[in-house]
């Protein structure tokens, strides 16, 4: 009988991406295993086409009686699978409860007050705001199964390209005026919380400056957390350009996660903050300019082979950085607002020149 493995990782896009090296390593360690991945809808697209996963179970977050009924039905479904191992990459109350109730013979998770008893084996969770890299932190859970330490050259983060999404993106950017020979710069300008949002005026300056390059097109994207961010940046960037060049900054609407992955594959450069879209970009080979505010690259830099270039932009010397992103002690988000747009422009031009 093949080994049956249940993986649980709820919530954030970036955190799900950071589990994909471990998923690949599990497949290498147990080539005949039946691997199930439990994820919430917001990040389901990240692992939907992962070739190392046999079954994807998407579990919506519901409250009240309907939520209890849905979770009860899910537990019954999991118990019927008779898992040998359950690995809880999340560690939150719901995730640990589902891992426990799955009935897996071996349950691996982080040490957590009041919840460690739900696991048969626990590993310490990093306690500092920096910790190690998120991939290494989550890898500690699979190392309990005898899997060696990860290296990004062998186990990079992964997200498969959805062919339908790729076709839709190709049609959309062509309609917007992008030719096959154009050099596309993707700038993602929103984030899920204000601690990771670089000012729109700064993004606009970067967009307008990079758009002046020969055969360049700048596509500005934003997510549902700040849907108007892209339009604000596009409007200001175009205002800074002569009328003859304003068409170089494109408005292409909102992209789904699968579409964003396909768009990045078409790009010559990606620019954005430390958020889910940047980690989606890191599953490609596109050069990345990443902006770090309250977090540090040591924690969440793109996890991939070193031959694929990355430039990390951050403000050094701030005693309040890194932080827990609950309250900005100085009150002005200086870890982001003090990043000079010229730093981003210089890094971008350097990576674009290297790509040529």
What does this structure look like?
The relative contact order is 0.12. The chain has two domains: 4-145, Glycogen Phosphorylase B (Rossmann fold); 164-355, Rossmann fold (3-Layer(aba) Sandwich). The chain is globular. Helix content is 37%, strand content 15%. Strands 3-2-1-4-5-6 form a six-stranded parallel beta sheet, with helices on both faces. It contains 13 helices and twelve strands. It is an alpha/beta fold and 356 residues long. The model has no long low-confidence stretch (mean pLDDT 92).
Q: CATH homologous superfamily name of the largest domain?
A: Glycogen Phosphorylase B
List how many beta strands DSSP finds: 12
Helix-residue proportion: 25-40%
Quick one: overall form?
globular
Query: What's the N-to-C terminus distance?
Result: 51 Å
- Which CATH top level class of the largest domain fits? Alpha Beta
Instruction: Please give the CATH architecture of the largest domain.
Output: 3-Layer(aba) Sandwich
Strand order of the largest sheet: 3-2-1-4-5-6
The largest β sheet comes out as: 6 strands, parallel
Strand percentage, roughly?
A: 15-25%
Mean pLDDT reading: 92
Given the helix and strand composition, which structural class is it? alpha/beta
- Stretches with pLDDT under 50, minimum 5 residues: none
How do the helices and strands follow one another from N- to C-terminus?
EHEHEHEHEEHHEHEHEHEHEHEHH
User: What's the CATH topology label of the largest domain?
Assistant: Rossmann fold
């Amino acid at each position: 009988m093949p080994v049956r493995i249940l993986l649980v990782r709820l919530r954030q896009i970036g955190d799900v991406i950071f589990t994909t090296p471990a998923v690949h390593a599990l497949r290498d360690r147990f080539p005949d295993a039946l691997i199930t991945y439990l994820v919430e809808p917001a990040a389901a697209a990240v692992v939907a086409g992962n070739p190392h996963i046999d079954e994807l179970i998407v579990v919506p977050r519901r409250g009240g009686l309907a939520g209890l009924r849905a979770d009860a039905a899910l537990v019954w479904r999991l118990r019927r699978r008779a898992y040998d191992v359950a690995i809880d990459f999340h560690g939150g109350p719901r995730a640990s409860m589902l891992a426990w109730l799955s009935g897996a013979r071996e349950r691996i998770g982080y040490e957590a007050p009041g919840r460690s008893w739900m696991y048969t084996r626990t590993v310490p969770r990093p306690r500092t705001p920096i910790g190690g890299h998120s991939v290494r932190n989550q890898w500690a859970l699979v190392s309990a199964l005898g899997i060696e330490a990860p290296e990004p050259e062998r186990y990079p983060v992964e997200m498969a390209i959805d062919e339908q999404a790729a076709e839709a993106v190709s049609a959309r950017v062509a309609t917007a005026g992008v030719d096959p020979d154009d050099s596309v710069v993707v700038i993602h300008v929103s984030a899920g919380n204000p601690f990771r949002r670089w000012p729109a005026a700064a993004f606009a300056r970067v967009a307008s400056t990079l758009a002046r390059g020969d055969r360049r097109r700048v596509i500005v994207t934003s997510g549902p957390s700040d849907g108007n961010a892209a339009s604000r940046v596009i409007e200001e960037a175009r205002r800074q350009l002569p009328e003859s060049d304003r068409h170089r900054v494109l408005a292409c609407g909102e992209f789904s996660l699968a579409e964003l992955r396909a768009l990045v594959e078409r790009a010559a450069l990606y620019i954005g903050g430390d958020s889910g879209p940047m980690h989606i970009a890191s599953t490609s080979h596109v050069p990345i300019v990443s902006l770090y505010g309250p977090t540090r690259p040591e924690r969440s830099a793109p996890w991939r082979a070193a031959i694929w270039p990355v430039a990390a932009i951050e403000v050094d010397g701030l005693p309040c950085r890194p932080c827990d992103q609950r309250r900005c002690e100085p009150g002005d988000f200086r870890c982001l607002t003090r990043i000079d747009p010229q730093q981003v422009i210089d890094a971008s031009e350097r990576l674009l020149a290297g790509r040529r």
